Recover the amino acids of this structure.
């Protein structure tokens, strides 16, 4: 005779044993503000503008990122470099560089479009702000700090040293 | 009647109500922590040390919540329903014995509020009143989900009240008394009634699970289907009262189950040190509450027709058989 399902009491006790056992497992909770889970390597967080080792900015103000941006979150205004006041290799640099993080969808197309790999989506994910104005990330906020081997921009350099906007990369992708 | 006796009763009543309300607050905390552990989480641990102030924070939040009354609700009944639900949960404590008696400055004070000779009947009667609160809440909200919730509740409680009442009969017959105090004393003489009445305890336990609308019998409030059931339209302190009633009843039925089947306040050395009585009872309540939470963390909700089938086709016959067997055994094995 088939046992009626209402009488399958042993199944109930099996379930109870499983939940009781799980009480002694280590909690999976991560106590967030104190304890942070490292993001995955390909995690796409907030952008950062990179520098070369000598301190020059990688961004050449070409605005390809702004063109590639599907949500129109990036605004770039280029200006001319001179050898007395050099910000980046080549002719131009980004005088204004703004990302509106309220519009950004973190797709990473800007990083794909960048010819100098100047803009990179970093692992920064704590992006809460109290004022809408704080969502506009200007160049000062986005730019990486000057590395130890380099100098602050603008730099005065010897003429003819940084003629190429896109430096010769050892291993172009 | 002398004034000191009245004062004693007032003090004991206030202590019991305070116990009920604090117990409610910390049962929610206990439940959240225990459920979290079952799901390998940590649970609330931010407010205060180890999250111990979480109930306080919840209470403050609920007090400052906006209280809404639906425009087409029956306002008098809508306000009355939470009160009707919470009062039985509090007054049920009157007959639960906490111990024998203690002596404070030469005055012997029994550790129970009232030793009425129909204690078990009183519990049954008072516990049944709470369903009116639920029904009135569902009806007066003038909304479909609360109405469905309260209809389910009515059907469920009618089905399970019978088995509950029959499960009471076992201990009553064994101790030949309806007084809770003599039921406990009888258990001290013989054995805990869970040993003599294992089937009775199982029936009683399942019936009180249904009676207090706990999982897996939490039909009336079924969050997923009924958006909270009878208290869908309630907010603020009125909602908190329903919540309070549920949890105080949970503690109360744990105390009653402990009293009827697990020896109540009895335990080692309780005769010589009467202060141990409340501690033993609290310990038993604590364990039973854990079982409630544990079951909630394990079993899914019953389907409605199966709930009914289980109540009428299995629980009721089993309870009747239990009563019959107990009666036969008492008759022929004195």
């Amino acid at each position: 005779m088939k046992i009626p399902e209402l009488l399958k009491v042993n199944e109930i006790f099996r379930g109870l044993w499983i939940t009781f056992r799980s009480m002694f497992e280590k909690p999976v909770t991560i106590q967030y503000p104190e304890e942070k889970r490292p993001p995955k390597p390909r995690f796409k967080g907030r952008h950062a503008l990179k520098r070369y080792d000598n301190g020059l900015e990688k961004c050449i103000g070409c605005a390809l990122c702004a063109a590639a941006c599907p949500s129109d979150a990036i605004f770039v205004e280029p200006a001319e470099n001179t050898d007395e006041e050099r910000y980046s290799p080549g002719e131009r640099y980004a005088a204004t560089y703004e990302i509106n993080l309220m519009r950004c969808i973190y797709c990473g197309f800007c990083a794909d479009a960048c010819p100098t790999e100047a803009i990179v989506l970093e692992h920064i994910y704590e992006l809460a702000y109290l004022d809408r104005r704080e969502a506009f990330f200007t160049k000062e906020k986005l730019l990486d700090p000057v590395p130890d081997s380099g100098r602050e921009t603008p730099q005065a350099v010897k003429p003819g040293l940084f003629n190429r906007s896109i430096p010769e990369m050892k291993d172009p992708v | 009647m002398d004034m000191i006796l009245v004062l004693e009763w007032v003090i004991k009543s206030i202590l019991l109500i305070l116990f009920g309300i604090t117990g409610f607050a910390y049962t929610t905390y206990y439940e959240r922590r225990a459920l979290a552990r079952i799901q390998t989480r940590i649970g609330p641990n931010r407010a205060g040390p180890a999250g111990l102030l979480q109930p306080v924070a919840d209470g403050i939040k609920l007090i400052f919540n906006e209280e809404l009354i639906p425009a087409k609700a029956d306002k008098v009944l809508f306000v009355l329903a939470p009160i009707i639900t919470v009062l039985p949960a509090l007054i049920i404590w009157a007959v639960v014995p906490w111990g024998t008696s203690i002596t404070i400055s030469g005055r012997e004070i029994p550790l129970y509020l009232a030793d009425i000779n129909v204690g078990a009947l009183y519990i049954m009667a008072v516990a049944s009143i709470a369903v009116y609160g639920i029904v009135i809440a569902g009806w007066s909200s003038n909304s479909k989900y609360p109405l469905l919730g309260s209809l389910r509740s009515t059907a469920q409680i009618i089905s399970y009240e019978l088995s509950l009442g029959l499960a009471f009969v076992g201990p009553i017959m064994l101790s030949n008394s309806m007084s809770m105090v003599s039921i406990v004393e009888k258990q001290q003489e013989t054995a805990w009634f869970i040993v003599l009445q294992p089937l009775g305890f199982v029936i009683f336990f399942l019936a009180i699970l249904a009676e207090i609308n706990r999982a897996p019998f939490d039909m009336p409030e079924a969050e997923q289907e009924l958006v909270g059931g009878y208290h869908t339209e309630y907010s603020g302190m009125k909602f908190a009262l329903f919540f309070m009633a549920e949890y105080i009843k949970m503690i109360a039925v744990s105390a009653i189950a402990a009293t009827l089947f697990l020896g109540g306040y009895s335990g080692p050395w309780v005769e010589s040190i009467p202060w141990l009585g409340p501690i033993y009872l609290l310990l038993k309540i604590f364990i039973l509450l854990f079982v409630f939470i544990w079951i909630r963390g394990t079993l899914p909700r019953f389907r409605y027709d199966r709930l009914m089938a289980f109540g009428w086709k299995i629980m009721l016959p089993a309870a009747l058989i239990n009563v019959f067997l107990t009666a036969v055994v008492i008759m022929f094995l004195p």
